[in-house]
Amino acid sequence: MPDDLTKLTALPGVGRKTANVVLSAAFGHQTIVVDTHVLRISRRLGLTKSRDPVKIEYELMEIIPKTSWSDLSLQLIYFGREICDAKKPRCEKCPLFKI
Question: What is the pTM of this model?
Fold first, then answer.
């Protein structure tokens, strides 16, 4: 298994999101995984206006310290599952609502 984004995405069935997950989980690289949760929450929080996952990845890389990239991805994914639901966001339970 290669530990390089370009080589991973060259494999059949491996897109950028999967490649970033592999790089983070298997090789310990700091990556930002942009799934539907990260995309939605990044927009809701005003961190990006883009709808393009690659653009969002690069925009988040510019404003988040590299040492936090992988953690941020997981935190936003879990946050999207538990609090910031796509159709029924639980804003009253959101710790970020006031900011």
Answer: 0.90
